[in-house]
Amino acid sequence: MTLDRHALGFGSGDRAIFASDPWNSRGRLYPETSSATRSDFQRDRDRIVHTTAFRRLKHKTQVFIAADGDHYRTRLTHTIEVAQIARALARALKLDEDLAEGVALVHDFGHTPFGHTGEDALHEMLKPYGGFDHNAQSLRIVTKLERRYAEFDGLNLTWESLEGLVKHNGPLMGKGGQGAHGPVPQPILDYCALHDLEIGSFASLEAQVAAIADDIAYNTHDIDDGLRSGYLTFDMLEEIPFLAGLMREVRDRYPNLESGRFTHEIMRRQITAMVEDVITVAQTRLKQVRPESVVDVRQAGQAIATFSDQMFVTDRDIKAMLMKRIYRHPDVMRVREGAASIVVDLYRAFMSDPLQMQKHYWIDQIAGMAEPAKARHVGDYLAGMTDTYAIATHRRLFDHTPELR
Length: 405
Hints:
HD/PDEase_dom
């Protein structure tokens, strides 16, 4: 008996002609038989959720170290919020929601412990060997480091999911073969030699909405967490006309509202305004570009799902405020210094004695490797650590571990 995909709701339905078609994927590096009950993009999304890398996100820093409080965002809760916004945008634009959600769920897999602090420290250590880039590390995880399947390393995701992961922030390669934003990380070039992800073009609209959803999510929840921490105040938010207008609207409608509810009312309005701005811009650009396929989206020469000029200024101003008031706050910088020293100490310890990397897949072979290969394996191991595991490992190996709070 053959299943009827259309009866199961798997037809094209209301999906736009420029959306990615889950039943006509460009395939996987290792061919697999398609599922009768799930599209290839659904399977990708499901594989992502069931990974070790996804579970580790719950103990990785977003902005505030987990010890600061249970209610601050972690990398996992941030990822879930990004996926929710990406799915909402995809539905409004009649895209494939599963692909947009999958790209959102996987986009931060490559982050080190302690957020961007850990990434900066690890990049500095790995500079002689090509450096470290969290986006390239995400690709390594889903194509090489996850070891779950009998027939291949990684998750064997579809071309579209991998393209979205690598290119969600735009083309990596400019004209003349030069990197569009600096040198293209070697892990991405290595993978493209096997499975060309066409890094000189834009990604699908599903990947584009995942990327802008990331900006919307962290702009909003970093303000929320900043208010919770006390590093931000409502008076500081008044410096941003957009936020000042939202606060005025809430005060006018709900006088004397308690601060917790007041904060939430601001945040929900901020997300709504930014989402609706992106939808409006995307609809306008789609009318201008008139793409008749996802290929036309990739060749449009511009991002389609993005902010308007006015919202772009707001986005820039919010990021500047967050940088000044939170990310560069003396207390945060002190914690960042301690976190960076943990990463550096662990890197040096593992390079000196690779056997200290307990349960590493290559533990029996790594000591005899050439220096560049050994360094990359140490980078993989360190990047995969959670905050809690990195701290515990440092305490096991060193007499003194910085207090990160």
